[in-house]
User: Fold this.
Amino acid sequence: MLADIVMHDYEARKMLYNFHKHNGNVQEISFSHTEQYIVTLGGFDDFVVVVWNVAEGKPSKSNPRIWDIDYKNIILVSNEIVQGHMRRIWTTAIIDNDDKYAYLGSTTGDIVAIDIQNYYIKHIGLVKDKDKLQAGISQIELFNLGDKLAAVVAEIVNGEIVLYKVNYPSNEKIPQLGTLGRTAVLGKITILKIQPLGYGLATKCMWWL
Assistant:
């Protein structure tokens, strides 16, 4: 269930925004010294930090970053991802079991893989227009299908789920995403989790597929 972050105009005595981004709850909220941005921290069901643009009432648009932990100096080091001319609003990310790639989904329905060690976009998971999630991707989950094969389960806010397979062609450097299947459920999907024998998702009702 998505947690609410409500912003009010104190002088006008009215609500300005109702932010929805964190699953479960919100543990901490902090304003920047100029009050241009708000930083929010999700709870144990979320593990997400979001920077909000106060004027727009939306998450701040920026390049994806990888944060390295410097244990010796007890600090976090931010590393910008090189994405060239590509401009997207990234909505979700998940890291594979080898900690080698992070897969990102966007509002345009694109899926990309980031090389975590070298901080750049390794490849774009090309999806045919007819197979794209036109309303954008709100969550991605991964599971293995064997040697060098993985499946990507992506979903959008209107309750549609698409299962993609990552294909590694021998004569191409860029893996392709092939559509294995798609379906829709009744209601908005709030949580999607992979289990060893299948995957489950939560809407206003609980589903098991």
